[in-house]
Design a protein that fits this description.
CATH superfamily: Beta-grasp domain
Number of strands: 5
Radius of gyration: 11 Å
CATH class: Alpha Beta
Shape: globular
Order of helices and strands: EEHEEE
Distance between the termini: 39 Å
Number of helices: 1
């Protein structure tokens, strides 16, 4: 199991960030995800695996002015 933004989510061997986002069916275009203390940007979502028992934060794009 992993924790994603405070929610418990099922984990599987070899899970990538892309797999995680597909699995939770969140269509928000997150540009960055934090796994523990490591920040990962969208170009690396397909190649970055999520370790079991991770704490993951989905970081949305913020705009303002």
């Amino acid at each position: 199991m992993i924790e994603v933004n405070g929610r418990t989510v099922a984990w599987h061997e070899g899970m990538t960030i892309s797999d995680l986002l597909d699995g939770i069916r969140d269509k928000h275009p997150y540009p960055v995800v934090r796994i523990g203390d490591k920040y990962v940007s969208r170009p690396s979502f397909d190649s970055t695996t999520v370790p079991d028992n991770s704490v993951v934060f989905l970081i949305p794009m913020i705009a303002g002015g």
